[in-house]
Write a structure and sequence with these properties.
Blueprint lengths: L1 H7 L1 H7 L3 H18 L4 H22 L1
Helix pairs in contact: 1-2, 1-4, 2-3, 2-4
Organism: Palleronia pontilimi
Keywords: Membrane, Transmembrane, Transmembrane helix
Protein name: Glucose-inhibited division protein A
């Protein structure tokens, strides 16, 4: 479900993975990027969120 959320709100999705500082920085960069580029940079943030979600799942698997 977090992957679907990353399509629409990447900073919130990153926050839900437990990376608070990264989510704040991403939000600060994401909002002006969306406004000034007209959404052209949005896929970059989606990919970033997907990578971070995948890493958090991999970390959980390694701990068990």
């Amino acid at each position: 479900m977090n992957y679907v959320l990353a399509l629409f709100l990447p900073p919130l999705s990153i926050l839900l993975t437990g990376r608070i500082f990264t989510a704040i920085i991403t939000f600060i960069i994401w909002v002006p990027a969306i406004i000034f580029s007209g959404g052209l940079t949005h896929p970059m943030f989606i990919v970033l969120a997907w990578i971070l979600i995948y890493q958090s799942h991999a970390d959980r698997r390694d701990r068990v």
